[in-house]
Write a structure and sequence with these properties.
By secondary structure, the protein is an all-alpha fold. It is built from two helices and no strands. It holds the Pfam family WXG100.
Length: 99
């Protein structure tokens, strides 16, 4: 019996690991950037341009963190897919072997 559908579970594990690492890396960098931006307050840069920059950064930061959450969701979905596929393989194997 040939299978038209196959999944490399080891490769799926690699994807999960890489997505988790990417999310952590970006999250860490965003914290650093936000911290640096926060230090600008009270340094004398209080103009309209400073206010516009602060608001633009806030919007960008919110969007960037939404991206991180999306990457985390992808990682979680890949983990679940791995678990579901592993279970399906075990179940099919048991059925085919009369178990």
């Amino acid at each position: 019996m040939s299978s038209e559908f196959s999944v490399d579970l080891d490769h799926l594990d690699e994807i999960v690991t890489k997505l988790s690492a990417l999310a952590a890396f970006i999250d860490e960098r965003l914290d650093g950037i936000d911290g640096r931006i926060a230090t600008l307050s009270g340094t004398g840069w209080e103009s309209i341009a400073a206010q516009a920059y602060t608001e633009a950064h806030r919007q960008w930061s919110v969007s960037a963190r939404e991206f991180v959450e999306g990457v985390k969701d992808l990682s979680d979905a890949a983990k679940k897919a791995h678990a579901d596929l592993t279970y399906a393989v075990e179940l099919n194997s048991n059925m085919l072997n009369g178990g």
